[in-house]
């Protein structure tokens, strides 16, 4: 298994290009299943999860190729899709596979998708996805680890419905929105997720001929149509990758421009960094971040909530800043029940953190000391890399296959900014 070897103490300078968003690309690859026409996606990031999703849809009979002349461009054609299934072998490695369920059921009237199974950060059930599709008339049987979805006898389409999920769910909103595009009549999603990736997906679906209003609010209204056509779409920039680099510069110190970053998608994180004393400003086509290093800055208390609140996907990375910033801080994780596994690894580096249920209490320390640590999940991995950038001596982060799920060769981007970091195969 690959590892990252980091020698701390280097400030970061220069600029980097933020990639397309993992959490937009994944549902948008599934949106291509809704039409028999060709769909072209630009700015598709080179991530392990994207490779897994491409393998999943190719397994269904979809042609999906990256353009040899432009590796961020993917052309998909689901006209030959003849196996509306998502098998466990692929689904178990990527929870976002559940996003195939709505499109397959809506277009073909049946689908067989494996239950995602366990995940490091929490149980992450998909009951709201199932509840919403049942409200649209789907007949769903869950057995032998699979979701078997079909339409009632005599029905050829899902039926529009008013759906209120028990909690805000990002992929739940996306699954139901995609299914509703081909349903008969109107669907209203109450309590819908407002994330920029949901908005980007809706904009792609509208280019395909869908009738959607209210995306970006808690109330999304969809008028179903009989068929959707192809489109070209540019995947929105990844606000979590950008936020990760904001925290890296804040912690290590330096002055970096994040090209293509959308400051308007990162208000909650930027506000906290500015409160800490970090300079964050919009510049032509991106965001500039400058910091003297965390030791000269104030740790920040925050709690994760649904968008536009502080994103749970940024909790671990900002904690890595807090552990070496001045003073005490409190982090509250309200979205997932087990998203503090980076804490014990940060403690190995010398961090002073106490976890009590949903709350982590942190006292900033003047220095961390490098050690070997183990990545446990995607954003925990990023947190350990940030800590390694500021720790004295050498830090080795093990099991970085977690990192590769959501970051495109992070070490190359950091090395280009002056970090002493390399990927090694032990
Ligand atoms: C591919 C993708 O877009 N992943 C994002 C998506 O994950 P994902 O869509 O899986 O996360 P959700 O927004 O659905 O989860 C929010 C909460 O609702 C719970 N829940 C969700 C669905 C359900 O049917 N039942 C249920 O109980 C979850 O366990 C969690 O506690 O949103 C998360 C929350 O912003 C992010 O951390 C992930 O990066
Ligand atoms: C939890 C995350 O992703 P996923 O839902 O794909 O596991 C994440 O991007 O932080």
TrEMBL record:
Residue ranges of every copy of the Enolpyruvate transferase domain listed in the record: 7-414
Taxonomy, superkingdom: Bacteria
Its Enzyme Commission number(s) read 2.5.1.7
One Pfam family of this chain: EPSP_synthase
Its UniProt pathway annotation is: Cell wall biogenesis; peptidoglycan biosynthesis
For this protein, what is any one GO molecular function term? Answer: UDP-N-acetylglucosamine 1-carboxyvinyltransferase activity
Q: Does the keyword Cell cycle apply?
A: yes
Show the active-site residues: 119 (proton donor)
Sites where 2-(S-cysteinyl)pyruvic acid O-phosphothioketal occurs are at: 119
Location(s) in or outside the cell: Cytoplasm
Membrane-spanning segments? none
Q: Which InterPro entries match?
A: Enolpyruvate_Tfrase_dom, Enolpyruvate_Tfrase_sf, MurA_subfamily, RNA3'P_cycl/enolpyr_Trfase_a/b, UDP_GlcNAc_COvinyl_MurA
Q: Where is the signal peptide?
A: none
| Primary location class | cytoplasm
* Keywords from the UniProt entry: Cell cycle, Cell division, Cell shape, Cell wall biogenesis/degradation, Cytoplasm, Peptidoglycan synthesis, Pyruvate, Transferase
Q: Where does UDP-N-acetyl-alpha-D-glucosamine bind?
A: 95, 124-128, 313, 335
> What reaction(s) does this enzyme catalyze?
phosphoenolpyruvate + UDP-N-acetyl-alpha-D-glucosamine = UDP-N-acetyl-3-O-(1-carboxyvinyl)-alpha-D-glucosamine + phosphate
Q: Where does phosphoenolpyruvate bind?
A: 22-23
Q: Does the keyword Cell wall biogenesis/degradation apply?
A: yes
Q: Outline what the protein does.
A: Cell wall formation. Adds enolpyruvyl to UDP-N-acetylglucosamine.
Record-stated family: Belongs to the EPSP synthase family. MurA subfamily.
Task: Quote the protein name from its UniProt record.
Answer: UDP-N-acetylglucosamine 1-carboxyvinyltransferase
Species = Hydrogenophaga atypica
- Which taxonomic lineage is given here? Bacteria, Pseudomonadati, Pseudomonadota, Betaproteobacteria, Burkholderiales
